[in-house]
Amino acid sequence: SLSVKLDRAFKTLKGQGQITEINIASTIKEIRRALVDADVNYKVAKDVTDKIREEALGRDVLISVSPGQLLTKIVSEELTTLMGETNVPISLEGNPNIILISGLQGSGKTTFTGKLANLMKKQGRTVLLAACDIYRPAAIDQLKVLGEQIGVEVYAEPENKDAVKIAKNAIKFAKDNGKKTLIIDTAGRLAVDEQMMNEISDLKEAVNPAETLFVVDSMTGQDAVNTAATFNERLNFDGVVLTKLDGDTRGGAALSIRKEVEKPIKYISTGEKMDAIDLFHPDRMASRILGMGDVVSLVERAQQNYDEEEARRINKKIRKNQFGFDDFLAQMEQMKKMGSMKDLLGMIPGMGKAIKDIDIDDDSLKPIEAIIKSMTPKERTQPEVLNGTRKQRIAKGSGTSIQEVNQLLKQFEQMRKMMKMMNKSGGKRALANMLG
Ligand code: GDP
Ligand code: MG
């Protein structure tokens, strides 16, 4: 029925206010939990959320966006900053341009070697791959199969057990055959050990690569950070490759590694296929870590569409307890500009499921609009003047019933009361209290 719809629509509108209050404290907690769940180490997660609280208190909250959502946006920005803002490209110096691939066994080195070669080939560079995993004959075959698949030559010496010599011969082969880039695939162990570290650092010293990349499996969580730190101590690598991000891992390792070793993440790997490679984008990883990509875009949309002047005007009215039906109508218009009500609510964390089966029809706002539009300017700013005769006139003019008009008035009154209460508790101080 219409009155149920009215009620629901109003709850929705009021819901904005409630989300505003409740979500601030819980969002901070939620964000910290999300970070830890996503394998960000606890200290880093705490640093981040402390900073966010500071940042949040300095910002004006738009009416059309709940502080919870705005906080999420701030968090996302903070994480992005922590992870380095922009992508850092690999070095293309040297002739040949030598790229050394390091990491534990199973981290995805050989697969990544093929992907990177494929990418560079597409960019018009001539590439040679060197098979320097001397321990497993299967490793050479694996690289050869990938090379064939992408049409890139592979240099190998199956009988030779000296990785340094193979690498040096590969450099000569690259020079003789006009290959501009040489990517060296190496052997790894299942865990960090001294022999592996010696081998890879000898190799690095011998070939003097323009770029040394450390490949790490994002599914290994906290271990990934420790391994990265150990490799970095010995190799002083230039960049990190995060693999297996196609799984359900949230990628918090990216943040912890970046904080711990202070080296940029340059590529991510998202599958076994040769085209499953991407440049690392800190902003996208931030949304992934938060698992709230949609919220970020909601906030962006709101900020784009929301007229700041209008926001300030309405804020002022609320502060002076002068919020009237005209302002209410203006708010509804603003919300409509942002998209459908259900879409908007669905973007709020935890709300998607809750409203899936509820019918939030944008049409349900129409009677409210009609009622307000049937009021005179005086009635809109001073609803107190609405007596029986006036209500009758409005109901008739808007095609609704007197009950519906009464209901809207009652709910509007409640909303004004809530605003008064918020005013009394004082904007920023209230926010500070809620943040704890
Ligand atoms: P390496 O020992 O470091 O050379 O690791 P490999 O390149 O041989 O990869 C080990 C396993 O992980 C193989 O089965 C790969 O197909 C798989 N793999 C590598 N990268 C990815 C990735 O990004 N996503 C998924 N799902 N699997 C991957
Ligand atoms: Mg390998």
From TrEMBL:
Domain notes: Composed of three domains: the N-terminal N domain, which is responsible for interactions with the ribosome, the central G domain, which binds GTP, and the C-terminal M domain, which binds the RNA and the signal sequence of the RNC.
Compartments in which it is found: Cytoplasm
Originating species: Ekhidna lutea
Family, similarity comment: Belongs to the GTP-binding SRP family. SRP54 subfamily.
Function according to Swiss-Prot or TrEMBL: Involved in targeting and insertion of nascent membrane proteins into the cytoplasmic membrane. Binds to the hydrophobic signal sequence of the ribosome-nascent chain (RNC) as it emerges from the ribosomes. The SRP-RNC complex is then targeted to the cytoplasmic membrane where it interacts with the SRP receptor FtsY.
Reaction(s) catalysed (UniProt annotation): GTP + H2O = GDP + phosphate + H(+)
GO cellular component entries: signal recognition particle
Enzyme class: hydrolase
Name of the gene encoding the protein in the UniProt record: ffh
Entry protein name: Signal recognition particle protein
Gene3D superfamilies: P-loop containing nucleotide triphosphate hydrolases (3.40.50.300), Signal recognition particle SRP54, nucleotide-binding domain (1.20.120.140), Signal recognition particle, SRP54 subunit, M-domain (1.10.260.30)
GO biological process, one term: SRP-dependent cotranslational protein targeting to membrane
